[in-house]
Design brief:
- The structure holds two protein chains of two kinds.
- By secondary structure, chain A is mainly alpha-helical.
- Chain A contains eleven helices and no strands.
- Chain A folds into two domains: 56 residues; 209 residues, MetI-like (MetI-like fold), CATH 1.10.3720.
- Helices cover 83% and strands 0% of the residues of chain A.
- In chain A, helix 10 packs antiparallel against helix 11.
- The longest helix of chain A has 43 residues.
- The relative contact order of chain A is 0.10.
- Chain B folds into two domains: 154 residues, 3-Layer(aba) Sandwich (Rossmann fold), CATH 3.40.50.300; 65 residues, no CATH class.
- Chain B is an alpha/beta fold.
- In chain B, 31% of the residues lie in helices and 25% in strands.
- The chains are: A mainly alpha, B alpha/beta.
């Protein structure tokens, strides 16, 4: 690249023309680099798919146990066209969004209070420390008795699985703000509330987003488990129905959709976090 | 009348500290680590708890919270807001004090010019050098038109050349704006170069006061101290 640029410098006399060409050169080089990065990630996937397809085509394993990639894609197309996949995905997505939003908001609010007020931290930390280690699905039997098997069950489970990590990450984020920065804001005339909204929370954003990113994937795992156990709709329910019908192709389609949704959620939060903090981090 | 008076200050460092800081003077507080220099600044700013009285122009500010005391504080680690660019860092004080957007912009421009950092307006603290950060932090503390400027070892993180340069600028700004200034340091040469008076502290007590401006007279010194002329 350096030699290419040097060559352009010596070839053209006009400064702006030369700069334009340099930027153009740099732009193309960056494009090639990012394309190469994508290819580096894609090649193993393509090889994996080829091996998968070959194993089935060569009858190494029976197709009803392990369908080929093309058969899975055909089933994916059918399920999408007849609306089964989208309806179930919409049910799961609604539960994940509802539980995740409520749990995250509660976690951020409680975490802010506990991070800022020592008395609140001292009061609530013991009980939260006792509740946090309980696996989310461990709550399921109790919740089934208390609220029954209905739409609220997976939402509450996701609420519980989102609340604690976001809570603790918010507390950590708030506590890690440099105390001198807070004092500086105070000497400049900022009230406690202003310091919270303009200094503490923006600086705690990276930690809060770490919690959100971690829990985005976990929320999907929890909703699938809840749907498999108790709820008749959603990707989890479709999975368990397919298992009883020995439809391995549908199971694989569901797992692929689940994987993509986890990835989309995680990447979404990563994108928002980068957008919010890339200038100053 | 002294601009700032500290009467019988007691806390975890001080045990009955008395001190007077005169209007528009540059008072240098010098001492070893743990002498109570930074705590003294924190008491004036209202950032730590204490017993006794702090008076601004003869009026007690004991019940006044930090955000109402109108002090400009340059912290040792500068404490710039990392998520705000230079202009927003400088404009933060006026903004939280309810000053209009146009006036804030004017004030920010003025301070950027004063500190000769107009070209840094849109940069974030992470992209500034030590000297540039120092200037931004100083501009930020001046933005609220403070009645007293507190400088906590402002040259500790700078190299010799930059240190001397910023020293001159602080002196110039102090003379130009006429703000009562308290500067904490542990460097005697720096204290002698900068100060109108030098207060030496040791173990939370005023050990000695040296007046480098004869016009203050001996009566201007703190209680229970010696004067050097």
């Amino acid at each position: 690249m350096r030699t290419k640029n040097m060559r352009l410098f010596t070839t053209f006399g006009n400064g702006s023309k030369r700069n334009n060409l340099l930027y153009h050169d740099q732009f193309i080089w960056n494009k090639i680099k990012s394309l190469r990065n994508i290819l580096d990630g894609l090649i193993p996937i393509i090889i994996f798919i080829l091996i998968w397809e070959s194993i089935v085509r060569l009858h190494i394993v029976p197709e009803y146990i392990f369908p080929s990639f093309s058969a899975v894609m055909r089933e994916f197309y059918h399920l999408t066209v007849n609306g089964v996949l989208l309806n179930n995905l919409a049910s799961s997505l609604f539960r994940v969004l509802a539980g995740f939003l409520l749990g995250s908001m509660a976690g951020i609010m409680m975490g802010t209070v506990m991070g800022c007020k020592e008395i609140m931290n001292r009061s609530f930390n013991p009980i939260f420390s006792l509740l946090y280690p309980i696996p989310t699905l461990g709550w399921a039997p109790l919740l089934m008795i208390w609220i029954g098997i209905n739409e609220m069950l997976p939402i509450i489970l996701i609420f519980l699985c989102s609340f604690f990590p976001v809570l603790y990450n918010t507390i950590t984020g708030i506590r890690s703000v440099d105390s001198d920065v807070i004092k500086a804001a105070s000497t400049l005339g900022a009230s406690d509330r202003k310091i919270l909204t303009s200094i503490i929370l923006p600086l705690a954003v990276p930690n809060i987003f770490t919690g959100l990113r971690l829990e985005a994937g976990m929320a999907w795992r929890v909703v699938i488990a809840a749907e498999m156990v108790a709820i008749p709709t959603g990707i989890g329910a479709l999975l368990i129905r397919s298992e009883s019908l020995l439809r391995v192709d549908i199971i694989i389609v569901c797992l692929m959709v689940l994987s993509v949704m986890c990835l989309v959620f995680e990447r979404f939060f990563q994108y928002v976090e980068t957008k919010m903090t890339k200038e100053w981090r | 009348m002294p601009d700032i008076e500290l009467k019988n200050i007691r806390n975890y460092v001080f045990n009955g500290l008395n001190m007077e800081i005169f209007d528009k003077e540059l008072l240098v507080v010098i001492g070893q680590n743990g002498a109570g220099k930074s705590t003294l600044l924190n008491i004036i700013a209202g950032l730590v708890e204490y017993e006794g009285s702090v008076l601004f122009d003869g009026v007690s500010v004991n019940r006044m919270l930090t955000d109402k005391r109108r002090v400009g504080y340059l912290f040792q680690n500068l404490a710039l807001f990392p998520h705000l660019d230079v202009a927003s860092n400088i404009g933060y004080g006026p903004a939280v004090n309810g000053i209009g957007k146009k006036n804030i912009e004017q004030r920010v421009d003025e301070l950027l010019r004063l500190m000769k950092i107009e070209h840094l307006r849109d940069r974030y603290p992470k992209n500034l050098s030590g000297g540039e950060r120092q200037r931004v932090a100083l501009a930020r503390s001046l933005a609220v038109s403070p009645r007293v400027l507190l400088l906590d070892e402002p040259f500790s993180s700078l190299d010799t050349v930059m240190c001397s340069c910023i020293r001159q600028e602080i002196k110039k700004i102090h003379k130009g704006l006429g703000i009562t200034t308290v500067l904490v340091t542990h460097d005697m040469a720096e204290a002698e170069e900068m100060g109108d008076r030098i207060v030496t502290m040791n173990g939370g007590e005023v050990h000695e006061v040296a007046d480098l401006q004869p016009e203050h007279g001996c009566s201007g010194c703190a209680i229970d101290c010696h004067c050097k002329r």
